[in-house]
Specification:
Oligomer: single chain
Shape: elongated
Distance between the termini: 21 Å
Largest sheet: 4 strands, antiparallel
Helix content: under 10%
Strand order of the largest sheet: 5-4-6-7
Number of helices: 1
Radius of gyration: 17 Å
């Protein structure tokens, strides 16, 4: 599957090789056919722990999710990078240095202090694949 265009005036995506369009309406919170998960990931370093007073910095050395936005039907598929439990209405993950649920699972901890990466994960239901199609990209 390849994306022919990102968006057009009709608010839908065109997929090459298939005679269907996948619209923004498919990403609605209830009853949608897709989910888009956007995450900001960094590694917790000594400098992060010092900024917190050094107390209880149990995620030191681990990659963690510091921001998360979920668009669409979030019950279709969780993120491959874990599910932080304390996310505010602006997408910020609270206590990412001290909360083990903020750890980005199966993510290499090779980012330097202050560096971060963005992860975009997309899951679309599909009759042809007996479930759905998952894709992710890092920026």
């Amino acid at each position: 599957m390849r994306i022919e265009r990102v968006a057009n005036p009709n608010d839908h995506f065109g997929f090459g090789g298939e005679r269907q369009n996948f619209g923004v309406k498919h990403f609605r919170a209830a009853g949608g056919k897709g989910v888009l998960i956007l995450s900001k990931i960094r590694v917790v370093h000594d400098s992060d722990c010092l900024a917190l007073g050094g107390a209880n910095c149990i995620n030191k050395g681990y990659a963690v999710v510091t921001q998360r936005f979920v668009i669409g039907t979030k019950t279709l598929r969780p993120s491959s990078f874990g599910t932080p439990t304390a996310i505010d209405s602006t997408g910020n993950v609270h206590n990412w240095a001290t909360d083990p649920s903020a750890r980005a699972e199966d993510f290499p901890a090779n980012l330097k202090s202050g560096e971060f990466t963005y992860a975009a994960e997309c899951y679309l239901t599909s009759q042809e694949s007996r479930g759905g199609v998952y894709s992710r990209a890092m920026f």
